[in-house]
Amino acid sequence: MRVLVVEDHAALAGQLIAALAEAGFVADCAADGEEGHFLGDTEPYDAVVLDLGLPRLDGASVLRRWRAAGRDMPVLILTARDGWSEKVAGLNAGADDYLTKPFAMPELVARIQALVRRAHGRSRPEIALGRLLVDTAGQRVTLDGRAVKLTGLEYRLLSYLALHAGQVVSKTELTEHLYAQDFDRDSNTLEVVVGRLRRKLGEGIIETLRGQGYRLVPAP
Question: pLDDT tens digits, residue range 187-197?
Answer without folding.
Answer: 678 899 999 99
